[in-house]
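Researcher: Re-running this chain for the archive, since the previous output was lost when a drive failed. Same request as before.
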Amino acid sequence: MNDLIEPQWEKQPDEPQHWFERFNQYARPLGVDYTTKRAYSIYRIEMGRKGVVTVQSDDLYNVWLGAAAQWQWEVRAREWANEDRKTYELMWQIRRRELLENDWSSASNLRDFAGDVLKRMIIHEVVGEDEEGNKLIKVAVKPGELAVMMRAASDLQRLSVGEPTTLSGSAQASVSIYLPSNDKPADVAPETDKTVGGSNE
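Model: Regenerated structure tokens:
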């Protein structure tokens, strides 16, 4: 035969069923590694036959050679391998795109959450005074914890678009997180105050 019907690895017109089954089971899965001898050797092993396969010693092997040539097993096995590779690559492209989109969405949610907390949070609150009249301050959320969240969100989004996670030069120096001007940093208390559970600074 000369002209193959697409897809080439499927049963061809007038191709005997038993030869298509042998191609489909023993030749096609070998793909680019296909040879008739290799396919036939796998068949022999499954049939429980032993010995070295040669044209001189195995008449059935000669029949396989004829059928493989007539029905173009090598061409069809390679065509199937190419299609399988394309399908595999497409599958991973789809998965990679889904992963990148999920990363971007997760990073956006994390960034929004950190920003919302930054707007709403109570940096510290006075919970009382000690015997000496010093204020007792309870730390609610440390700015450093928000900085970690914001940085993680930024890194995740940068990775999702193929950008490095580390900024350099003036760009890095300009990246900061600021607290509202009327609040003190949570991990710094006045010298005359005490932090709950801590000692005088």
